[in-house]
Write a structure and sequence with these properties.
By secondary structure, the chain is an all-alpha fold. 70% of the residues lie in helices and 0% in strands.
C-alpha cells in the first residue's frame, strides 16, 4: 500500500496503473487482486487509513470539547486543528493522495473520498449544533452544514499548502483556522450573547499561541525531555 501511496501522490490516481503499483511493491498482479477488487478499492483503503488515524487522534479532544465550558471550548478549537494538521503532516504522501482525489477524479473516486470524510463533517456539525442549542450562536440548520463544510475546505486548502510548499507549518495553519472559526462564531452570536461574551473573547485573544506538541504515531502525544508523554490535547488557560 505504501508503493501505491507514493505513486498516487506523484502521478495522480488516474495516471497510475495497477502493474506500476505491483512493480513498485515487488509483487504480482494476482497478489494485488487477492487483496483488492480494483484500484478504487485500494484508494478507499488508503483514504480510510488516514481518516481512521485522524479519528483516533481527535477522539479524546472531541469528547473533551463537547462537555467543556464555553471559554474552554473556544480555546480548545486551536488544539483540535493542531492535532489534525500534524496528523496530515505525518503522512504527506497519503495526504496528497486525499487532496488530489477530492475533485476532478472519476465519480467513483469522489464517492470514496466523500464517504471517508462524512464523519469529520458530522463532528463539525455536532459542535456548531451544540452552540446553537445553547443559544450562543444563531444559525439555521442549512447554515450549520455550510459552516462545517467551509471549515473542512479551509483545512484542505491549508493542508495542500503545507504539504506542497512547506508553509504554513501545522502550528500556523491551526492558528489561522482557529481565528477564522472564532470569527465565524462571534459574528453569529445574538447581540445579548455577544455583549455577555466580550470578556471571554478578550481573554481568549490575549492567550499566546498554543504550545504545539508533536504527536507520536499512536496519537497519544510526544515525549518531552524527561521522557514523559504530554497530551496533544492539553492547553492551560491562564485565566478563566
Amino acid at each position: 500500500m505504501r508503493a501505491a501511496e507514493r505513486l498516487f501522490a506523484t502521478q495522480g490516481f488516474a495516471n497510475t496503473r495497477i502493474n506500476e503499483i505491483t512493480a513498485a511493491a515487488r509483487t504480482g498482479i494476482s497478489t494485488f487482486y487477492r487483496s483488492f477488487d480494483s484500484k478504487e478499492a485500494l484508494l478507499e483503503a488508503l483514504v480510510l487509513q488516514l481518516t481512521d488515524d485522524l479519528s483516533l487522534r481527535l477522539g479524546p479532544w472531541h469528547r473533551e470539547i463537547v462537555g467543556a465550558q464555553p471559554l474552554a471550548r473556544l480555546a480548545a478549537i486551536e488544539r483540535g486543528f493542531a492535532i489534525g494538521f500534524e496528523a496530515l503532516a505525518a503522512r504527506p504522501h497519503l495526504t496528497r493522495v486525499l487532496l488530489r482525489s477530492l475533485y476532478g477524479s472519476r465519480d467513483a473516486v469522489e464517492r470514496v473520498v466523500a464517504r471517508a470524510l462524512a464523519e469529520v463533517t458530522s463532528r463539525n456539525i455536532e459542535l456548531f449544533s451544540i452552540a446553537v442549542a445553547e443559544g450562543r450562536i444563531v444559525l439555521a440548520p442549512e447554515r450549520i452544514e455550510s459552516f462545517a463544510t467551509a471549515v473542512l475546505g479551509m483545512v484542505f486548502h491549508l493542508a495542500d499548502q503545507m504539504i506542497t510548499r512547506g508553509r504554513p507549518s501545522a502550528v500556523e495553519a491551526a492558528r489561522t483556522c482557529a481565528r477564522i472559526v472564532d470569527g465565524m462564531i462571534v459574528v453569529s452570536m445574538p447581540p445579548a450573547r455577544f455583549e455577555e461574551s466580550l470578556p471571554m473573547i478578550r481573554t481568549l485573544l490575549e492567550q499566546p499561541a498554543a504550545a504545539f506538541v508533536p504527536l507520536a504515531p499512536d496519537g497519544r502525544g510526544a515525549r518531552d525531555g524527561s521522557g514523559t508523554r504530554r497530551s496533544p490535547a492539553r492547553r492551560v488557560l491562564k485565566r478563566s
